[in-house]
Design brief:
The protein has 346 residues and is an alpha/beta fold. It contains twelve helices and twelve strands. It has one domain: Alpha-Beta Barrel (TIM Barrel). The N and C termini lie close together (11 Å).
């Protein structure tokens, strides 16, 4: 067993083909689901960002975080991830500080470099600049949250004599997570002494996962920091049910749509050698480490295997059937996970 885990649910506010709901209804129902998740006892809600996607994939993390903050009291709110190269980092720092005030100190921010060519083209940003934009963006946000009368002169951003108001509730600043699915971005997280977000197994593969965490540790040690003091976030799919065939039939189209979309995005750019596997079927190992479905014991075993292989995960985003209400304004999958699986890890 690892240390105690915190569990969150990821929401991207999408409308896959065949979903007849209006986008406004999807937003309204998803916000209701997040209130329901808080009542059940989930620790986090995790937002994500993409742009120009026909299913409406959420492009704006900060206003959604503020809406959730206004509707909830306890659940923590973060992103997994916001795409920092597409943001003015000073404005993003202001937006997160305001959302933190609305939540009374519950908002965090996870940032990543992005990868989709269509998004970089759409924002007229050179994809080769994403690393330097991440470095500058993280530095600017941390200065904005923590310093007075600061200036910054970089390759992409210039700011002079800035003091940001209002300040966030959380001091010295809201937690800044940094994502990486390769050693180089993981080292960035270590350099900034930031907690690390690792992508779900279908997007990273076990070899890159282990190498990225090792690089993260090396970067922390180089600054005299102990990796044991820093959280690590991952993602695991969990479907807790005694009627797997019925659940599989209900979720198959939406799951297939998402899987094929992500596979197309990653294989278009081929940033990792692992991405070539997305042209074919995932290996048995990838499937096993991506999630588990069945009775509570099966899901517990699968999650234990995922978190027990060397990366000391502290936070897990749970993927699965949690994006719609089902029976009488309830979601049995969310209830089953909290009632039967989560206590084993808390």
């Amino acid at each position: 067993m690892t240390a105690k885990l915190k569990f969150g649910l990821g929401y991207d506010f999408r409308r896959p083909p065949g979903d007849g709901r209006a986008m406004a209804d999807i937003y309204a129902e998803t916000l209701d689901l997040i209130v329901y998740a808080e009542d059940l006892g989930f620790d986090y809600v995790m937002l994500t960002e993409h742009h120009f996607v026909e299913d409406g994939y959420s492009p704006s993390v900060a206003p959604i975080a503020a809406a959730i903050a206004a509707r909830t009291k306890k659940i923590r709110i973060t992103s997994y991830v916001a795409l920092l190269p597409f943001h003015n980092p000073l404005r993003l720092a202001e937006d997160i500080a305001v959302a933190d005030l609305i939540s009374n100190g519950r908002v965090e921010l996870g940032v990543g470099a992005g990868y989709r060519k269509a998004e970089f083209d759409g924002f007229n940003i050179d994809r080769a600049e994403r690393g330097s934009r991440m470095d500058e963006g993280c530095e600017v946000m941390l200065k904005a949250w923590t310093e007075e009368n600061w200036s910054f002169h970089g390759r992409h951003w210039t700011f002079n004599n800035i003091t940001m108001h209002p300040k966030a509730v959380q001091q010295p600043h809201p937690r800044l997570w940094i994502s990486g699915r390769a050693p180089a971005p993981a080292r960035r997280a270590g350099r900034f002494k930031a907690p690390l977000q690792l992508p779900p197994m279908p997007d990273i593969g076990p070899e890159a996962e282990q190498a990225s965490y090792a690089a993260y540790c090396e970067a922390l040690w180089a600054q005299g920091a102990d990796p044991a003091d820093y959280p690590v976030m991952g993602m695991f799919g969990a479907v807790v049910t005694d009627n797997l065939s019925a659940v599989a039939a209900r979720m198959s189209d939406a799951v297939r749509w998402r899987r094929e979309l992500y596979a197309a995005w990653f294989t278009e750019v081929m940033d990792l050698a692992f991405d070539a596997e997305k042209h074919g079927k995932p290996s048995a190992e990838i499937r096993e480490l991506s999630g588990a479905a069945g009775d509570p014991e099966a899901v517990i075993r699968g999650l234990e295997h995922y978190v027990g292989r060397g990366v000391p995960y502290s936070h897990i985003a749970i993927g699965g059937l949690h994006e719609r209400f089902e029976e009488g304004g309830r979601n049995p999958q969310m209830e089953n996970f909290i009632r039967y699986v989560a206590p084993h890890f808390r």
